[in-house]
Amino acid sequence: MLSLGENCNHQIEAVMPIELNKREKKLARELIQKSLQIECAMFIEETEALIDKHKREGKTSHEIYLKLYEKTQTFDKHIARRYDYLRGSTYFLVLLGLVNDKILSQEDINRFDEDVRRELLNTSESWDD
After folding, report:
1. What is the pTM of this model?
2. Which residue has the higher pLDDT, 47 or 18?
3. What is the rounded distance in angstroms from the CA atom of residue 42 to the CA atom of residue 44?
4. Residue 92 CA: distances (Å) to CA of 11, 89, 102, 111
5. 100 and 8 Cβ atoms separated by less than 8 Å
6. How many Cα neighbours within 13 Å face the side chain of 123?
7. How far is the first Cα of the chain from the last one, in angstroms, to the nearest whole number?
8. Second label for 47, Cα 20 to 30 Å away, from 10, 54, 62, 70?
């Protein structure tokens, strides 16, 4: 199952993905790869902060390890749901999740054709309601 975003409780069946043309699929692949790097960098920063926080609180190494293990498992599941088994037919749904989680910038979204851009923004906005 694809992850539409951490803040999205909508069912995947409720979204009618639009077909991306060849140029947009290439752009989607580029932005999805960029987003994976962003999410991994965010995970590393959060993990470092978690370790530092627990050290300051005097937690044992084992307690810190357990927290780190839990965080890593959760992140791994998220990454697998979002980025594993990508196909051209699922790019739009992945992009929706990235827009919903605010991983993609407005500048990134503006690189798509008007129809795709409008559909990404309108669907994302409807999820915020």
Report:
1. 0.81
2. 47
3. 5
4. 15, 7, 15, 14
5. yes
6. 27
7. 23
8. 10
Position 54 pLDDT exceeds 50: yes
Asked if 12 and 105 count as a contact pair (C-beta separation under 8 A), the reply is no
**Contact of 4 with 10, CB cutoff 8 Å:** yes
CB atoms within 10 A of CB 107: 7
56 compared with 18, residue with greater pLDDT: 56
Label residue 10 by pLDDT band (50, 70, 90): very low
**Block residue for tokens 């960098």:** 41
- Name the percent of the chain lying above pLDDT 70: 84
Rounded CA separation 112/104 (Å): 12
* Domain residue ranges of the chain, discontinuous segments joined by +: 36-128
With a cut of 90, say whether residue 1 has pLDDT above it: no
- For the record, the structure tokens of 47 come out as 């993990």
* Tally of CB atoms within 10 A around 80: 11
